[in-house]
Design a protein that fits this description.
This protein is α/β, with parallel strands linked by helices. The protein has two domains: 8-53 and 152-314, Rossmann fold, CATH 3.40.50; 56-146, Rossmann fold (3-Layer(aba) Sandwich), CATH 3.40.50.1100. Helix content is 46%, strand content 15%.
Length: 317
């Protein structure tokens, strides 16, 4: 796999590679949200993506970029759910075995989805260290190719394609794009896309207060861990990587934190007003826009709704 930061051509190539396998998800607008924020908002609905999340893009780009030789022993990754589904889905498309490491407390809806794509799941304790240790065991046993959930340039280039479509389909020049941040694959990809394809567009991130490592890293100029981890946004619990962080530092303008209460309110508005099934992590960028409405007032803002894989038996409202 390439070990260089994606450039304009890399992102275009990734888009061509994954286009046949993904949905070009709609960019939606809402009079209710526009009035609430005093801004023109353009929602990129990756909750309507294959596997229910933007992660399909990065997973497919990474797997489709592997050679037959690299795929012969299968592929492996660790993920709380959406990247797990992406790799299982992509592996099934190319006929490769997928070995997925998932935390034992992963949402059942995501576990069931990974199994439905034919992947073999190994459960572990929900810490980054345990995820990585368990994956290393699988690699030692199987020789499977490892695809990191976010700290991988092929994955980042794939995630970048969501913002590329948003810029192309919004029908207007965007002042800003806001994306959620966990490990930073989507955010760094979004930032690179804006840098190459719409340099006047500033990029921001939303992050849960209960997993606020990216904002600390952004301020201190080095990768930090969150002081505590406790949030409803289960897809954003990890910290930045050495590939995602430098891109974020170079091309992201600011990171805004939101409480779980603000995330749930954004989720509820999306469900009630736009009829969109959105998971907590997917609503973080919307929550941040609502919280910073004075900052975004009068601007044209693209918002990436990252996913919609909700456990319907555990809705927070």
């Amino acid at each position: 796999m390439t070990e260089t930061v994606p450039v304009r051509e890399t992102i275009e190539t990734a888009h061509k590679l994954v286009a046949a396998y993904i949905h070009r998800t709609p960019v939606m607008t809402s009079g209710f949200f526009n009035e609430l924020c005093g801004a023109e908002l353009y929602f990129k609905c990756e909750n309507l993506q294959k596997i229910g999340a933007f992660k399909a893009r990065g997973g497919l780009n990474a797997i489709l970029s592997l050679s037959k030789e690299q795929l012969k022993n299968g592929v492996t990754t660790h993920s709380s759910g959406n990247h797990a589904q992406a790799i299982a889905f992509a592996a099934a498309k190319v006929g490769a075995k997928a070995y997925i490491v998932m935390p034992e407390n992963s949402p059942l809806v995501k576990i069931n989805a990974v199994r439905s794509y034919g992947a073999e799941i190994t459960f572990c304790k929900n810490t980054p260290e345990e995820r990585e240790r368990t994956v290393q065991e699988i690699i030692s046993k199987t020789g499977a190719a490892f695809v990191h959930p976010f700290n991988n340039y092929k994955v980042i280039a794939g995630q970048a394609t969501a913002a590329l479509e948003l810029i192309e389909d919004a029908g207007t020049s965007l002042d800003a794009i806001i994306a959620p941040v966990g490990g930073g694959g989507l955010l760094s990809g979004t930032a690179l896309t804006a840098h190459y394809f719409s340099p006047e567009t500033k990029v921001y991130a939303g992050e849960p207060e209960g997993a606020a490592d990216a904002v600390l890293s952004f301020r201190s100029d080095k990768i930090e861990k969150a002081p505590y981890v406790n949030t409803i946004a289960d897809g954003l619990l990890t910290y930045l990587g050495d590939k995602t962080f430098p891109v974020i530092k170079a091309h992201v303008s600011d990171i805004f934190t939101v409480s779980d209460e603000e995330i749930v309110m954004a989720m509820r508005y999306l469900w009630e007003r736009m009829k969109l099934v959105v998971e907590p992590s997917g609503a973080v960028s919307v929550a941040a826009t609502l919280k910073q409405k004075d900052f975004f007032a009068g601007k044209k803002v693209g918002i990436i709704i990252s996913g919609g894989n909700v456990d319907l038996g555990k809705l927070p409202f």
